[in-house]
């Protein structure tokens, strides 16, 4: 069955090529090459390394990132050989394949792992677009990967921050951090105050999301502390709006934190912004009123 | 109480501008030790979760395709295309993109757009060109940042209307643990008011962008 094995095979190959090209570059980018090589190993053989082996791999990735030797390449204006509007059609191959694949693959669960339909479609879209690109534009064999590596160098270590935060969440869960935070927040609410409870819940979701970079980590904590015992049981609130609006309050937090690297730091790098936090700053004026809206909506629903 | 030291490490590490990967790893170690975990166990827990979440980083496989098309002038083409339509302002373009992203995400089509797939190669150059076409030459930074912001706002406040998205399944699972049964459909319905509010608030800011750019 086609599933993550295909996606991870493609990703492992792409990062392996990035590593080779970083080594072949003049001057050599040894730190970049090592970083990509480790990611390639993770994609190809992560399941064979064992938990401790994967832990060592993460420590090595972190050491490279912290050494400060991982650098973006000095920008060189790559000579463009302009082509016509067919470029748009080529650019739409990946989104179109993702669209068709997501809808289609769920109908053939025997062939494609339905849970991974989107990622499988994405990988197939990449292969299709590369194939058409080679046939149409006839670039050098290494050109797509050389250009891709240039973009990857810009993204840099921020690429693995979301995975690191997911791992931190796992450690937090075992250490019981959620229970302690939940206890503190729950204890801070004035007895019998609905508005106080709603505010602690919504703002708590946003703040914990800012720290963890992900509302998924905050939801179980805030549900246990305030959502279930106070909003649902004490005030008899309908579970659906309490849960749904709480999660959306968390998403407001995601807009305001550099920890949500894939949404906030990576685009700043891809768009070559001078301010690494430029995207976060552009989002705060939307996130704060929206957080207030969620708070008010939940209060209105419950009272 | 001691386990909260890990949160302090994150906050302090960020303020002191250490490398975020290092800060996260240090926070995991401090938290684990405070909870009395064996250091080897902490490394294993961390490694396992890292391996299990590799799918998050799979998106970078699109970069060779984007890089190739850009080398043959994709960004320049996107700029030219917008230049031909004088009535398309940066704000109007981004409001349209916001709506597109919210509606498609609400249908579960979250991966058909994104920062690497559409923002960098297409939408950002178009928005920049539309702003420049009105004489706003030094606004590139702000317009680009707002383009990325628009993609995020559209995605976050559209996807929760789709019943089979990760966050909905998480909520159902967590509440099930308390013996509370909720239907994914009810959760997705309650995402609609905030989706509308997000469109109005962010859309209004994009409308203001056009006002501030010189005519």
Automatic annotation (TrEMBL), chain A:
Annotated transmembrane regions: 6-23, 52-72, 84-105, 117-137, 157-178, 198-231, 243-263, 283-302
Entry annotated with the keyword Transmembrane: yes
InterPro entries attached to this UniProt entry: DUF979 (IPR009323)
Name under which the protein is recorded: DUF979 domain-containing protein
Keyword vocabulary terms for this entry: Membrane, Transmembrane, Transmembrane helix
Organism expressing this protein natively: Sphingomonas lenta
Domain of life of the organism encoding this protein: Bacteria
UniProtKB/TrEMBL annotation, chain B:
Signal sequence interval, chain numbering: none
Family matches, as InterPro entries: DUF969
Record's protein name: DUF969 domain-containing protein
Keyword Transit peptide among UniProt keywords: no
Protein's organism: Sphingomonas lenta
Residue stretches spanning the membrane: 58-74, 94-117, 161-180, 187-208
One Pfam family hit: DUF969
Entry keyword set: Membrane, Transmembrane, Transmembrane helix
């Amino acid at each position: 069955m086609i599933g993550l094995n295909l996606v991870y095979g493609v990703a492992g190959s792409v990062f392996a090529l990035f590593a080779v090209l970083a080594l072949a570059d003049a001057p050599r980018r040894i730190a970049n090459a090592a970083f990509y090589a480790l990611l390639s190993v993770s994609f190809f053989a992560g399941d064979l390394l064992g938990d401790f082996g994967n832990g060592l791999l993460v420590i090595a990735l972190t050491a490279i990132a912290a050494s400060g030797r991982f650098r973006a390449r000095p920008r060189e204006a790559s000579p463009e050989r302009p082509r016509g509007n067919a470029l748009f059609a080529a650019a739409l191959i990946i989104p179109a394949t993702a669209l068709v694949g997501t809808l289609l693959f769920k109908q053939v669960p025997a062939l494609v792992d339905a849970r991974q339909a989107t990622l499988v479609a994405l990988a197939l879209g990449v292969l299709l677009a590369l194939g058409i690109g080679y046939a149409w534009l006839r670039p050098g064999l290494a050109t797509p990967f050389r250009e891709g590596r240039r973009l990857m160098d810009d993204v840099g270590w921020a690429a693995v921050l979301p995975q690191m935060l997911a791992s931190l969440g796992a450690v937090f869960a075992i250490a019981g951090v959620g229970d302690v935070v939940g206890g503190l927040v729950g204890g801070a609410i004035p007895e019998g105050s609905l508005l106080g409870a709603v505010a602690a819940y919504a703002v708590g979701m946003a703040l914990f999301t800012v720290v963890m970079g992900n509302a998924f980590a905050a939801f179980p904590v805030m549900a246990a502390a305030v959502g279930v015992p106070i909003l649902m049981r004490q005030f008899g609130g309908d579970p659906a709006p309490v849960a749904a609006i709480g999660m959306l309050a968390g998403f407001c937090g995601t807009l305001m934190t550099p920890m949500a690297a894939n949404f906030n730091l990576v685009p700043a790098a891809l768009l070559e912004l001078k301010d690494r936090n430029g995207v976060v700053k552009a989002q705060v004026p939307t996130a704060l009123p929206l957080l207030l809206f969620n708070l008010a909506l939940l209060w209105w629903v419950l009272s | 109480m001691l386990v909260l030291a890990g949160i302090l490490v994150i906050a302090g590490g960020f303020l002191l501008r250490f490398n975020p990967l290092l800060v996260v790893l240090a926070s995991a170690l401090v938290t684990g030790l405070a909870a009395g975990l064996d250091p080897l166990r902490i490394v294993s827990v961390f490694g396992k979760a890292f391996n299990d979440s590799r799918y998050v980083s799979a998106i970078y496989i699109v970069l060779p395709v984007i890089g190739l098309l850009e080398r043959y002038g994709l960004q320049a083409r996107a700029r030219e295309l917008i230049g031909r339509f004088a009535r398309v302002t940066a704000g109007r373009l981004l409001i349209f993109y916001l709506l597109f992203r919210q509606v498609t995400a609400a249908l579960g089509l979250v991966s058909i757009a994104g920062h690497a797939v559409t923002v960098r190669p297409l939408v950002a150059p178009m928005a920049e060109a539309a702003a420049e076409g009105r004489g706003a030459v030094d606004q590139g930074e702000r317009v680009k940042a707002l383009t990325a912001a628009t993609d995020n706002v559209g995605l976050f406040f559209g996807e929760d209307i789709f019943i089979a998205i990760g966050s909905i399944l998480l909520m159902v699972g967590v509440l099930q643990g308390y013996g509370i049964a909720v239907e994914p459909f009810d959760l997705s319905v309650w995402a609609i008011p905030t989706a509308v509010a997000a469109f109005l608030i962010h859309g209004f800011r994009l409308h203001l962008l056009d006002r501030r750019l010189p005519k």
